[in-house]
Amino acid sequence: MVAPACILVVDDEPRSVEVIARILREDFEVLSATSVEQARALLENNWVHAIFCDQRMPGMSGVEFLAEVRARWPDIVRMIVTGYTEPDDMIDAINQAGIYQYITKPWHPDQLLLAARNATQLFTMQREYERLSLELRLAPPVVEGRLRQQRERVAGSYHFDSIIRSPASPMCDVCRQAAKTAVFDIPVLIEGETGTGKELLARAVHYASQRSAGAFVAVNCGAIPDDLLESELFGHRKGAFTGAHANRRGLVEEADGGTLFLDEIGDISPAFQVKILRFLQEGEFRPLGTNETTRVDVRVLAATHRDLRAEVRAGRFREDLYFRLTGMVLSIPPLRSRPADIHVLAQHLLDAACARHGRHVRGFAPGVMDVLVRYAWPGNVRELQNEILRMLVLAESDCLGLDLLSPMLMGVGPVTVTPQAPLAAEPTVHDSGTLQERMDALEADVLMETIARCGWNKSLTARELGLSRVGLRAKLERYGIVPDAGKQSLQKGNS
Ligand SMILES: Nc1ncnc2c1ncn2[C@@H]1O[C@H](COP(=O)(O)OP(=O)(O)OP(=O)(O)O)[C@@H](O)[C@H]1O
Ligand SMILES: [Mg+2]
């Protein structure tokens, strides 16, 4: 509960003091003094918000005393109570003491209460104003400090170390090269399939560059038609086209002093290639609807999922633009060609998803990682990220089991071709032997194909083929299917 405001009543006439005090006590804490000396002592020892003071007092007038109060305790709201209609010099005196209100006798109790409420409210507002003014004075360094911390946190999360990879990953070379390139103000082209982390790498380059305090502005050139892309990038003036209701700064200008990331640069039309080329050559551009050129200082990073050299050879991408963009080329290998990364990335992405969604899952059940490593990941890290989130959503224990994997990974989808895991053979129709022999050979092929795809996980294979574990084991023994180096050579027909 907020303590009531405190009001001091000063009058040499004890009865007057008592009458005023009684009225104010309804809403306030009231102190009373019948002399100036007593009033001073109370002010020195109490937190007073407002004063009602009588004008006619022996020794010192009310206005004189309130002038003294103003000098010593300027925050206290001062009111004078007087029985006379005062001449002009009295008004001057009142101004000198900075009196908030003067109340003439005879007063009405409501008038007194209203004056007291307004006065104490004024006191509170003055205090609040002072507090805010003080905060405002302190604000620039505080805000600056917070901004710096925020900037450091963002830069920290886009450091090359935040690109998760195994110690022997080909990504280590890519990151080393990128880190070297970052400090040179040259254009960089990042190649890689969708979801391999091109934008992540581009951000790391930006935050490791001398432009890290500037903006990183990403534009997806592939997703936008030419005219919209032009206005997005270079901005427009009001009325430049139907719907241009106001001036608009382009993203190129937003990136001034920082980095402009042209994503999916391989997808832009030949006409727009010319516009980008002109901008890269001249460092200036013309917003739509103007004749004036604007100059900016940006570093351009670009990315593509296409083989841009092949596009140049095929005549679909301008060679001169290609050379403008490729001060350095960084190529991110697809996820399927770096199986060791799948292990560390899966665990990292699981931990990150758990932290974001407040879940507690330790890791993966045996066999899951084998399936993850064997899958082709056409959507690369983004697809892995989605798969793990999906598993986490479905999880009912603290360990992600094989049963949570999407059917896509369990067979119908693409299967990896890596040196570690040759593509399992499709079942083939056998064209010699008796019907039984041909059926057995086909059954062996189906078993072989399924168990290889399931990463030699017997429960999973049994479930997929509608067999019990014991039944599966009997069939594997019968056909001599074993997960060793010679596993592909089936010893068929030894029943
Ligand atoms: N090595 C990595 N470590 C951690 N996260 C990664 C890594 N590679 C990619 N990611 C994550 O995967 C997702 C896809 O990455 P990003 O958007 O950078 O890929 P991209 O190559 O630009 O994809 P697209 O071609 O579809 O634009 C992002 O959430 C990114 O943070
Ligand atoms: Mg991208």
UniProtKB/TrEMBL annotation:
GO MF annotation terms: ATP binding; sequence-specific DNA binding
Cited InterPro entries: AAA+_ATPase, AAA_lid_NorR, CheY-like_superfamily, Homeodomain-like_sf, HTH_Fis, P-loop_NTPase, Sig_transdc_resp-reg_receiver, Sigma_54_int
ATP-binding listed as a keyword: yes
Protein name, as recorded: Sigma-54-dependent Fis family transcriptional regulator
Modified-residue entries (4-aspartylphosphate), positions: 54
The Sigma-54 factor interaction domain, residue ranges: 164-393
Superkingdom of origin: Bacteria
Keyword line: Activator, ATP-binding, DNA-binding, Nucleotide-binding, Phosphoprotein, Transcription, Transcription regulation, Two-component regulatory system
Gene3D superfamilies (alphabetical): 1.10.8.60, 3.40.50.2300, Homeodomain-like, P-loop containing nucleotide triphosphate hydrolases
Single GO biological process annotation from the record: phosphorelay signal transduction system
Alphabetical list of PROSITE patterns matching this protein: RESPONSE_REGULATORY, SIGMA54_INTERACT_1, SIGMA54_INTERACT_2, SIGMA54_INTERACT_3, SIGMA54_INTERACT_4
UniProt domain Response regulatory: residue ranges: 6-120
Phylogenetic lineage: Bacteria, Pseudomonadati, Pseudomonadota, Alphaproteobacteria, Acetobacterales
